[in-house]
Design goal:
This protein has 5 helices and 8 strands; from the N terminus they run E-E-H-H-E-H-H-H-E-E-E-E-E. With 168 residues, the protein is α+β, with helices and mostly antiparallel strands. Strands 1, 2, 3, 4, 5, 6, 7 and 8 form an 8-stranded mixed beta sheet that branches. It starts with 6 loop residues before the first strand and ends with a strand.
């Protein structure tokens, strides 16, 4: 399968294959910034954390769930994770968020048709913030921002304009 091939399954999940290349969190910061991506300090802190563990040559199948498949009251991290697990999906490692950010072309953005993609990795706690955090991409005026938001289990995503990234 071509590494840029997208597939949409009948259940509405969008799949995108990516392969890790051993890039460390610090190297991802430089790599993304060199490609014009502005990273807030909180994102840099997550990528520099002990939770970031790079791999090399690992093939991941990214799976993106649209927020529209959830009722408003069910768009809560714990329930989103349960649905994903029932679909045979898993939490991605942090590096998958970086791999997705790098691959996120306008065509992929159009297919996802959400303004936010929440990377549903195991939430990270960093020193400067006393909350659990998850990486996310925000699409605004054709640009994708790579940031972080609260990742605690009861976190409710009010808008169905969110999508949630897991791996198969």
């Amino acid at each position: 399968m071509n590494s840029n091939t997208l597939t949409v399954q009948r259940n509405g999940v969008i799949y995108l294959p990516v392969t890790s290349d051993g890039t460390s969190g610090e190297e991802w910061i430089k790599r993304l910034e060199n490609n014009g991506c502005k990273l807030p300090d909180i994102t840099k802190d997550i990528l520099r954390s002990e939770s970031f563990k790079p791999t090399k040559g690992v093939d991941y199948q990214i799976a993106i769930l649209s927020g529209q498949i959830f009722k408003d009251q069910d768009r809560v991290n714990s329930l989103i994770r349960r649905k994903a697990y029932n679909l045979g999906l898993s939490e991605p490692p942090l590096e998958v968020g970086c791999l997705f950010r790098e691959k996120c072309s306008p065509g992929i953005r159009e297919l996802i048709s959400s303004n936010w993609v929440i990377v549903m990795h195991d939430p990270v706690k960093i020193e400067c913030v006393d909350k659990l955090l998850t990486l996310n991409l925000e699409f605004d005026q054709g640009r994708a921002y790579f940031s972080a938001d609260y990742g605690f289990p009861s976190r409710h995503w009010r808008d169905d304009d969110n999508a949630f990234l897991f791996i198969k």
